[in-house]
Amino acid sequence: MGFVVRMNILFGQRGLCLAACVLALLVSVSPAQASEAAPPLLLAEVLRGEVDVTRYWVSEKLDGARAVWDGRSLRFRSGRAVHAPAWFIAGLPPEPLDGELWIARGRFDALSGIVRRQVPRDADWRQIRYMVFEQPDGAGTFTERIERLRGVVARADVPWLQLVEQFRVADRQALQARLDEVVAGGGEGLMLHRDDAPYLTGRSDALLKLKPLFDAEARVVGHLPGKGRLSGMLGALQVETPAGLRFELGTGLSDAERRNPPPLGALVTYQYRALTPDGVPRFASYLRRREAF
Fold first, then answer.
1. pLDDT beyond 90 at 36
2. Using CA atoms, how far apart are residues 251 and 286, in angstroms rounded to an integer?
3. What is the largest CA-CA distance in the chain?
4. How far apart are CA 91 and CA 261, in angstroms?
5. Which of 53, 142, 210, 248 is deepest in the core (most CB within 10 A)?
6. Which residues does the annotation mark as catalytic?
7. Residue 157: pLDDT band by 50, 70, 90 thresholds?
8. What residues have CB less than 8 Å from 196, skipping those under 6 apart?
9. What is the pLDDT of residues 127-145, one digit of tens each?
10. How far apart are CA 193 and CA 56, in angstroms?
11. How many contiguous H segments (helices) and E segments (strands) does the chain have?
12. C-alpha angle with apex 149: 145 to 152, nearest 5 degrees?
């Protein structure tokens, strides 16, 4: 006996209405949509203040695309499927993994173009490695999960699955020296994972990030209008560097600055994390108007 018929027998006309509502809800959430729910992940806090860095495992912060493997499918942090070649997926183990799809330092743009393709190209994917650093829902401390991950990667024995190197530092001076070394080599920064931490999700100081921010100046050449909450205010500054490169600064501005933005021709200071191959600042954020003293 069908669901709607049973509801009608039990509750009459009201049952028909209830059944229709339930069926509409079930149909509205397709399997594809359900599979795209963002997986719960551990997110890093910024390293600030007095932290005993000897309690942490340290690794390089890779400039890649975070991906989660549940033993059957590979998904981005957003929950969307990663369209990797069948051979890439076939080489992954049955154990859940968390890590970064990565090519090399400074190759994020190339990586992004490859992994966003709906139809994967084998030759492109041969460059990519899945660099794992966590075991979702794994038992024990982070130190214990690292040991288990070493075994998982060794048993898989495929070149595109690798464990992110984890190391210790003696003090803050040694940590800074390692950061300087990584950044000088084109790396993005460092990640610190507390050695005794259980598996966690959400933002936590069990995972810390340390990376440099660069400052530079540019001249305001345009005001772009805001949308939504920012309607009637500035949405972004269009700026030009001394080298003639133009880009937008849409973050870092207070509402007061959006109502009364730096005028055209003003010199402003912005922060950024790195440069793209074309020299465009990545994650650029407005800092302040540059004043002449």
1. no
2. 6
3. 83
4. 53
5. 142
6. 61
7. very high
8. 55, 141, 142, 143
9. 999 999 999 999 999 999 9
10. 5
11. 8, 16
12. 140
CA dihedral 44, 49, 51, 53 (to 10 degrees): 80
Q: How far is CA 192 from the centre of its chain?
A: 16
Q: How many CA atoms lie within 13 A of 98 on its CB side?
A: 19
User: Tens digit of pLDDT for each residue in 65-118?
Assistant: 999 999 999 999 999 999 999 999 999 999 999 999 999 998 988 999 999 999
Residue 128 in 3-state DSSP? coil
Specify the pLDDT at position 1: 44
* Identity of residue 69: W
Strands 202-210 and 190-194: antiparallel
pLDDT at 159 over 90: yes
Classify the C-alpha dihedral 238-241-246-250 as positive or negative: negative
Across the strands, what pairs with 102? 129
- The closest of 22, 9, 257, 56 to 174, measured between CA atoms, is 56
